[in-house]
Amino acid sequence: MKYFYLVTLSALLAIQPQQVEARKKTTDERLAKLERLLDSQSLVQMLSKLEQLQSEISILRGEVEMQSHTLEKIKDRQRELYVDIDRRLLKLERGGAVSSAPAAPSVTKTETAADDKSAKASKQDIVKEQQAYQQAFDLLRNLRYDKSITSFRNFLKEFPDGRYAHIAQYWIGEANYAQRKFNNAITDYQVLIKRYPASPKLAEAMLKISYSYYELKDLNKADMNLQRLIKSYPDSTEAGQARNLLKKVRLQLKKSS
Predict the structure, then answer these.
(1) Domains and CATH numbers, the chain
(2) Cβ–Cβ under 8 Å, residues 132 and 159
(3) Which letter, b or e, does each residue of 173-203 get, where b requires 16 or more Cβ atoms within 10 Å of its Cβ?
(4) Residues 183-223: pLDDT tens digits?
(5) Are 188 and 169 in contact (CB under 8 A)?
(6) Backbone dihedral angles phi then psi of residue 179, each to the nearest 5 degrees
(7) Cα–Cα distance measured from residue 219 to residue 212, given in angstroms and rounded to the nearest whole number
(8) What is the DSSP letter of 188?
């Protein structure tokens, strides 16, 4: 009996190293396989994160470009506005200083009084319009966008054909654009283009419409509006910016096709 246990123990001791070696080999292979799998998953995750970061950087860069453009345009327009107001006020002051000539014999006193009253009312309307516009513009300058939009809309109701009407409509679009309310901005810029076709702000409005569609990921409409801008105002600063944006739009369209 004792001899049997010794033989069995010897057999077990002889087999154990082989089994241990086999198990070790199997374990090493499994570990190597897991390491390769983990390495592959890590690489995929890193690539995914890299693409995401690149996309975010691109979006942020676009936002910075658009915000810089908006700020520059607001600053430029402020300077233009103050120069325009000073010029108009000077013109009004000069007009008011003209000496009155004797009335012609054929003109009655009643007619003269009516003309004076009409001229006085006209000047009052001009001053009233300027004050209403300036009030709305001051709200915009202080970044009180919603209140400025309301004020500009009230201004347009009272002075729909006034000298500042087209600029007021443009600022409504700008206020919505600054708040990233791109659908509203598009609508208001389009109102400017349709209602005030002689406005010098049309190229800027068309560019902002294109930027708005770009932000909304509607690349086809952005492409269409950019082409329209370039065709209508080929030598403008806005056309140059439109060409740069058009390259980005078509690159993204190509990637998505």
Answers:
(1) 70-91+121-200 (1.25.40.10), 201-257 (no CATH)
(2) yes
(3) bbbbbbeebbebbbebbebbbeebeebebbb
(4) 999 999 999 999 999 999 999 999 999 999 999 999 999 99
(5) yes
(6) -90, 5
(7) 10
(8) H
